[in-house]
Design goal:
By secondary structure, this protein is mainly α. It contains 4 helices and no strands. Helix 2 packs across helix 3. It is elongated.
Length: 138
Amino acid sequence: MEEEEWSEEQQRFSYLQRLKAAVHYTVGCLCEEVASDKDMQFSKQTIAAISEVTFGQCENFAKDLEMFARHAKRSTINTEDVKLLARRSHSLLKYITEKNEDIAQLNLEKKAKKKKKLEDENRNSVESAEAGVEESEN
């Protein structure tokens, strides 16, 4: 039993390290992009510090999102939780709200297309069935 727990702990640690490495890589890429745009340099220590702060903030966001969902007696985080998290940044909240509305609109359009297609298929199958009945009567 202890070996299983140790193995799970090792897997979690490995996963966490990979996540941190991915964040560090992404921060490094963003810093390079900003550096080339602004004609400046970022030290490795600065990139590492930004990466650590970013990772820590993401952990806090994840915990907050879990708490918001749990408070609403849900086990799934939804867009309302994300909006609540972003409430202090008006520009971010506006962006998230707009994207959410865009996605909702796309979903409505897809649903309408699917419904129309289904109705057309049903109409066609009824018409072909009626045509088959007429032929058999003749």
